[in-house]
Structure formats: C-alpha cells, structure tokens
Amino acid sequence: MAMGRPRSFDTDKALDEAMEVFWRHGYDGASLAMLTKAMGIKPPSLYAAFGSKEGLLKAALDRYAERRSTHMRYVLAGATAREVAERFLTSIAESHTDPANPPGCLLVQGGLACGEGSENIPFELASRRAQSETELRERFAAAQRDGDLGASADPAALARFLSTVASGMGVLASSGADREALRQVARVSLGAFPEPKAAR
Q1: How far does Cα 55 stand from its chain's mean position?
Q2: Contacts of 196 (CB under 8 A, 6+ apart)
Q3: pLDDT tens, position by position, 116-170
Q4: How far apart, in whole angstroms, are the C-alpha atoms of residue 27 and residue 153?
Q5: How many CB atoms lie within 10 A of CB 185?
Q6: N or C: which end of the chain has fewer CB within 10 A?
Q7: Sign of CA dihedral 94, 100, 125, 29
Q8: In b/e form, how buried is each residue of 102-135, taking b as 16+ CB within 10 angstroms?
Q9: CA distances from 131 to 9, 32, 65, 69, 163 (A)
Q10: Element spanning 2, H or E
Q11: Which residues have C-beta within 8 Å of that of residue 84, sequence separation ≥ 6?
C-alpha cells in the first residue's frame, strides 16, 4: 500500500487559527469554509488531519488547554486561598480583554449556541471548564487542612463559585465589557474569601 502524503502545513499554527475562529464564532457559527480559509488548508487536509469538524475543535481545545495550564500553575501557586482567588479572577479580567485575543473565553464562547448535530459540544466544553474547578477545589481543600480556610468553609462550593463568576466574566467580555468592569466583578467576588489576619 502506498504511503500517504506527509502533512504539508504547520499543525500548531493551523490550530491557533482554528481556535480563533471557534472563539469568535462558536462551534455552529464556525463554517468549514471559514476554518479552512483561516488555517490555509483545503477540506480534505482538515479531515485527514483531524477526522471531522468536531475533531478539529477538540484538537483546538487541547491547544487552548496548554495556555490554561500555564495560567493555572500561576493561580494555584498563590500563598493563600484568597490570593489564589485573586490571581484567578484578576488574570481572567486581563486575558478576557486582551486585544491580542478574541474577547471572552473559548470554553464559554464555543458552545453558547449549538443546534442539531452538535448537542454534545456544550458538554465537551463544560468538561474542560470543570478541570479548573477541580484544581481550585483541591487547592482550597489543602488551604483548609493548613488552617488558611476555616473549618466551616466549603472548598467545593468556593471552587464552583469562582468557576461560575469566571464564566460570567467571559460572557460580559464578549458583550463588550471593558477590563475595569471585569476587575470590579473580581473585587466584589473576593468578598467570599477571608483576608489574611495580618491585613485586618
């Protein structure tokens, strides 16, 4: 059997371009023509490399996850639960309004409206968002064991709260809210976390 032709495009660059299309237009709004034009390839190359449009989205999400993993390492390294929350929300306010990227968050924007044939896309995106929530929950549980969070604190509820606020900030950013508006949301949300005793 003859060997297939080697891939003739830069996969990482193509995924970055596809990511931006999904980010700006959502899964259903991102047509095959838009994707292949942005990636600089023909439909047969897309299918050969990724199997389907959904396969392309998952590959783009994996690429996006690489960015998020760097962000989450910084967040989780905060010295206290409050600092972790502050880093998480402040960095979201920055990234969601970064002019170098589409506004908002790919994991929210990608599945806001999905029709027939793509019903599982919102669940795929939700499972990706849940990864950060899990990491936050585990970090807050460690903070509670260390005495940084009181015994009455609920690490799972705090992580879910931050995850929900982050999703809301993504929607606000995609609707045109500026960085200061998102920072205000972050500041108010930090009221759910105790300040270090020395700062009181």
Answers
A1: 18
A2: 80, 82
A3: 556 678 788 888 888 999 999 999 999 999 999 999 999 999 999 999 999 899 8
A4: 38
A5: 18
A6: N
A7: positive
A8: bbbbbbbbbbbebeeebeebbebbeebbeebbeb
A9: 31, 29, 10, 10, 10
A10: none
A11: 75, 76, 78, 136, 139, 140, 143
